[in-house]
Amino acid sequence: MAVSSTAGLVFTVRRKTPELVAPAKSTPHEYKPLSDIDDQEGLRFHIPVIQFYRKDGAMEGRDPVKVIREAVAKTLVWYYPFAGRLRELGAGRKLMVDCTGEGVLFIEADADVTLDHFGDALQPPFPCLDQLLYDVPGSGGVLDCPLLLIQVYIFIYKYICTCTSILRPTYIYTLFTVFLDGAPSPRVLHSPFH
């Protein structure tokens, strides 16, 4: 449990134990080298992303955390390298993805705060990102760590917040939203790993 304060804002965050979400179906175990562009030393860090949503009336009676967890598992079938781990190959430190299917880190949490409490602070730099984006011990590295950490917060008054730490956010987020919308498969099959 963490208590946060920013410009007079105090709220409590309650997190469940982090878990690994694996692909919904079996995926190939193979190695995929990163391109020279993606393999640059200066790009070996995680990018934090925070997004806020109002709870959709169409979700009435459904657990939004379960829906998101299932969408992540379905997404990882198509983008299975994200469920793997980065490894260095040889003395040149060339990165490759070991497509292990281990999964991505997923944390369910709630916070006793509303979006209105944040006021106009919902633009970068977000003042409470450090309190909302939990640094799971042992997951902050680039090598041999999950490539994606997703945290789903339920705020009071039916707001949902997702906090993510990811190496390459644009590709998987596009596909992830397709599955959240209920599509059985992606419309476009493109990935930095294919």
Automatic annotation (TrEMBL):
<dbReference type="GO" id="GO:0009723">
    <property type="term" value="P:response to ethylene"/>
</dbReference>
<comment type="similarity">
    <text>Belongs to the plant acyltransferase family.</text>
</comment>
<dbReference type="GO" id="GO:0016740">
    <property type="term" value="F:transferase activity"/>
</dbReference>
<dbReference type="InterPro" id="IPR050898">
    <property type="entry name" value="Plant_acyltransferase"/>
</dbReference>
<protein>
    <recommendedName>
        <fullName>Benzyl alcohol O-benzoyltransferase</fullName>
    </recommendedName>
</protein>
<dbReference type="InterPro" id="IPR023213">
    <property type="entry name" value="CAT-like_dom_sf"/>
</dbReference>
<keyword id="KW-0808">Transferase</keyword>
<dbReference type="Pfam" id="PF02458">
    <property type="entry name" value="Transferase"/>
</dbReference>
